[in-house]
Design brief:
The protein is an alpha+beta fold. Helices cover 16% and strands 31% of the residues. The protein has one domain: Jelly Rolls (Sandwich), CATH 2.60.120. The N and C termini lie far apart (36 Å). Bound molecules: N-(carboxycarbonyl)-S-(naphthalen-2-ylmethyl)-L-cysteine and fe (iii) ion. The site of fe (iii) ion has 3 residues, from loops.
């Protein structure tokens, strides 16, 4: 039986829970994320080719995703401060186990901040050791115009990800091509200073690191 999100995208394994987080859950999670950002400030990564991302990033959990001239990788410390990433907020761990049913906790949470014209080009997520573990994405703040299509190329579909929406990428959708075309500036007042936060919870290492 296909879910409505799978029917909408044509991607088996794409799970989507619009409005999964009530407004009070969103502010509770936002507070925990702002505490992470106070310890591990946003920084602007560069592509391996030396182009700055329009998105700024930080991480929490044992491992964090970084990009620089050395390539894409997961590492246990912030690339600017050199400090270990802060712990993953309890609300995120609870969301992961509740929605994915995975026995193992996530070991990495990438926090992306989109402001103004920030976007993210179509790509696949394949820097994780075990590509069968799901990815869980939580959106807070301004609505994003999200694009997703099959791993092997072919037609993409556009979907709006609003504040409190959660999606999981499992099975064949795990290697889907996806990106953020733009955010709708002014569509939410949740994030102080404006913008959209996206949290992606992953299992980056092929073994327990926590
Ligand atoms: C589909 N982030 O961090 S979240 C990323 O909104 C990333 O910041 C976007 O793509 C963002 O890598 C999209 C939705 C998402 C996240 C991970 C996926 C979709 C995915 C992994 C595989 C397939
Ligand atoms: Fe991605």
């Amino acid at each position: 039986m296909e879910t409505s999100a799978e029917l909408e995208t044509g991607l088996e394994g794409f799970r989507y829970w619009p409005g999964a987080l009530a407004p009070s859950d969103q502010t509770g999670l936002l507070d925990q994320v702002l505490a992470v950002v106070a310890q591990a400030p946003f920084y602007r990564p560069e592509t391996p080719g030396g182009r700055p991302f329009s998105v700024v990033m930080t991480n929490c959990g044992p491992l964090g995703w970084v990009s620089d001239r050395g390539g894409y990788r997961y590492q246990p410390h912030h690339p600017v401060t050199g400090l270990p990433w802060p712990a993953m907020p309890a609300r995120l761990l609870a969301l992961w186990s509740g929605l994915t049913g995975e026995a193992e906790p996530p070991d990495a949470c990438l926090v992306n901040l989109y402001r103004g014209a920030a976007r993210m080009g179509l790509h696949q997520d394949r820097d994780e050791a075990d590509l069968t573990a799901p990815v869980l994405s939580v959106s807070l703040g301004e609505t994003a115009v999200f694009r997703i299509g099959p791993a092997g190329g072919g037609p993409t579909r556009s979907l709006r990800l609003a504040s409190g929406d959660v999606c999981a990428l499992t099975g064949p959708a795990r290697l889907a091509r996806h990106g953020i075309d733009r955010v709708i500036v002014g569509s939410s007042q949740l994030v102080p200073g404006g913008g959209r936060l996206n949290l992606t919870l992953r299992r980056a290492a092929g073994f327990r690191v926590s």
